[in-house]
Amino acid sequence: MKELVEVIAKYLVEHPEEVVVTEEESGKNLVVKLHVAESDMGKVIGKQGRIAKAIRSVVKAASTFDNRRVDVEIVE
Going by C-beta distance under 8 Å and a sequence separation of 6 or more, which residues neighbour residue 33? Predict the structure, then answer.
């Protein structure tokens, strides 16, 4: 999941070199944390959170193959 979020985020932002994605596991749950440059935060979140919601939907769909729950957090 880390790679999927990283590819999507790097495509959206102006500073792809500042995109950092980390994973934290706890049992069947996985938390993917996305760190981007402060100037790119709006591009990753989108108007009314639409881009962030779309990223979460894609990751959720991809995670059904792994039989685990994946949450995506966008961190400053």
Answer: 21, 22, 23, 24, 73, 75
Q: Which pLDDT value is given to residue 34?
A: 96
Q: Is the model's pTM score more than 0.85?
A: yes
Identify the bridge partners of residue 55 per DSSP, sorted by sequence position: none
CATH number of the structural domain spanning residue 35: 3.30.300.20
Domain that holds residue 17: 2-75
Number of domains in the chain: 1
CA angle 28, 4, 71 (to 5 degrees): 35
